[in-house]
Structures are given as C-alpha cells and as structure tokens.
Amino acid sequence: MRQIGYHASHEQFAPSELLDLVRLAEAAGFDAIMSSDHLAPWGAKQGQSGFAWSWLGAAMQASRLPFSIVTTPIGIRYHPLLIAQAVATLAAMYPDRLTIILGSGEALNERPFGIGWPAKDERVARLEESVAIIRALFRGEEVTTRGFHRLENARLYTLPAQAPAIYAAALSLGTAHRASGWADGLATINMPSSRLRAIIDAFREGAGEEKPIHVQVHLSYADDLEKAQHNTLEQWKTNALPAPIAAELYSPQMFDDATQHLRIEDLEESVLISPSPSQHADWVQQIFELGADCALLHNVGRNQQEFIKAFAEKVLPQFKGI
C-alpha cells in the first residue's frame, strides 16, 4: 500500500514544536514520520538543529506512527557502534516502527568535529564497512575490527526482537546502484521525473522489485503563489545546490553565500511550488507512478499547521487505500 509521510525538519523547528507537529500530522492522517539528523541548519534563516536522537525517544512515545531517520555513521560525528546501540534501544522500545537511512554525509554535520573530511570514495567505503558492523551487532555478535572503524569485542546487550531495516540514502545513479547490494530499501528526493526514474531503476537493477522506495518530497504550499515562493526562497533555496557541492560546504553561512544569487525559477526543479492542493496531489501521484512506495512530504515553509490542515482535507484522502 502506498503511504504518505510527514517530514519533521530539525533544521527549521525547535524540538518541542516538532513534537506538536508530529501529533498534528498523525491526527491529520499522515502514515509515517521522517526526521533529519543535523548538527547545523542549512542556512541561518532556518535557525535550529536539535539533537535528533534525544527527540526520537519523545516523538515515538508521543505517536504510534513508524519513523525513519537519515544519519551518517562514518566514524566522525558517529561511530557505528554508537548508532547501532541507539537504534537497537529505540527499536526494542518501539518494535517495528524505526527505519534508519544511512548515507555518506555532508561536511556541514561532520567537519566541525575537527578530525577531517574524507573524499567521497573513502566516505562510501567507511559507510559500507559501518553497515556490515551494524548488521553484525544487530545479530548479537561480538565484533572486533581493524578497518576504518576500530572495535574491541563490541557487543549490544539490549536488542529488539526484529532488527530495524537499513535503507540507503542516494542522490545519484552510482550511489543507488552500489547501495542495491547492501540496503533493505532506497531513500531519495524528488527531482525531474527522468532522473528520479533512472535512480529508482538503478537501485531496482541490483535489488529487485521487492525492496521499498521512499522519496522525500520538498514542496512549498501556501494559500497563494507569492507566499509559497517567498517561503521557498527564505527557507530552502540551499536545496538547489548540486549534491557534490552541498556535501563539501561546512557552515550555514557558506550555504547562504553559495545560494544568495538564486531566483525562484532556479528552484522549480528541486521544490514543488504551488498554492493548489490538487496540483500537489498530482505531483505526488506522479512520484508514485515512477515507482515510489512512500512519499515523505516536507513543506519547506514555516506554515506547517496550514499545510497539514490543507493536505488532510484535500490531498491525503485521495491516496487512502491505494
């Protein structure tokens, strides 16, 4: 069954406000919650970045929905042993409700720790090694390693009955194809249809047809077009940067400087902008037709209550039971 989820953006809202928004989204009929895991916001006007792992325990207690979180266990901000323990504990408390989405990360969240920022190929190798470690720990094995990540007789003592799914975060054909060998599912973002179809196909080529595809949909809804455009420019123009560039910038100010010249027409491929709920429903339908199983909606403006109410009334009912 196709699902529509709500994205809880730690970059834009204080943790307590996000808790309230999760409750509203659940009451409105959203099927799932997705969470970002950031040390810093993308830009100064976003203004927040609470610690997602502290928040998750409270949010999963406040809601009965399934959650997913995007994170990067490559040994800079997080050691894979720490992530495995955090995830296993949450999964033991909230069975069958947590999915982790693992990616090679951005300098914005890693470089401030002062131990360097590896090139992309090394980050991918670190990620794949960490996935193997996390899976072994989820199986209850004792792990000793001498690779990128050093472990000495490491083991988890609190484990869920069922290990959480591990998805891959992928924004390129190469990443999607490579991840098909180790991931339980794929998480990507909305982009022009031909590119999104190619990424889904690249993953399906190696993973088969059964593994789920989740698409995070960046959109801007408001009651008129000018407001929707303003919200996009104020809050989410950094999303227009190509992924290889975004991965290397390491402060909100750098993102603001790199995007200060962008106009609204430069953002139309990366953010779906419209005051029409029916137009947004059509866009979501197109994403499902490309092969997505779950669309996780991120309204990029601060008008979250307006968005949740409008979509509860005019968008979500169109997809119930499909």
Automatic annotation (TrEMBL):
Domain of life: Bacteria
InterPro entries per UniProt: F420-G6PD/mer, F420_G6P_DH-rel, Luciferase-like_dom, Luciferase-like_sf, Non-F420_Flavin_OxRdtase
Sorted UniProt keywords: Oxidoreductase
CDD domains linked to this entry: Tetrahydromethanopterin_reductase
Domain spans labelled Luciferase-like: 8-293
Alphabetical list of PANTHER family matching this protein: 5,10-METHYLENETETRAHYDROMETHANOPTERIN REDUCTASE, PTHR43244
NCBIfam families cross-referenced by the UniProt entry: F420_G6P_family (TIGR03557), flavin_revert (TIGR03885)
Name of this protein: LLM class F420-dependent oxidoreductase
Organism: Limoniibacter endophyticus
